[in-house]
Design goal:
Length: about 100
């Protein structure tokens, strides 16, 4: 068979089965557009998540002696000193957290 004959038979078949041809082309186009839409939505969500996480910084922790905005129960207000000293932060002699 020649290429020209194959094309003539293909277009003849499209003309005879118009509804089948229309439904097939509609299904293919809907499938392609849905894949494009999903990929666009995933890309937009990834960008949104990355910008949200970039605000936090990359592997950076900020430690301060008197954290602001932290309120403990009782009389201490936000930003007040908690009275932690070097001696009180060391484990006691009776502590067995790391004993083997």
């Amino acid at each position: 068979m020649e290429f020209r004959e194959i094309l003539r038979m293909a277009f003849g078949s499209l003309g005879v089965n118009k509804l089948r041809s229309f439904l097939t082309m509609s299904g293919i186009s809907i499938g392609v557009f849905s894949v494009i839409g999903v990929m666009t939505a995933v890309s937009a969500l990834r960008g949104s998540i990355e910008t949200g996480l970039s605000v936090l910084g990359s592997n950076i922790f900020q430690i301060s002696r008197n954290p602001t905005g932290f309120q403990t129960s009782g009389t201490r207000a936000a930003g007040s000193s908690s009275g932690v000293t070097l001696r009180s932060s060391r484990p006691s002699a009776t502590s067995s957290c790391c004993a083997t």
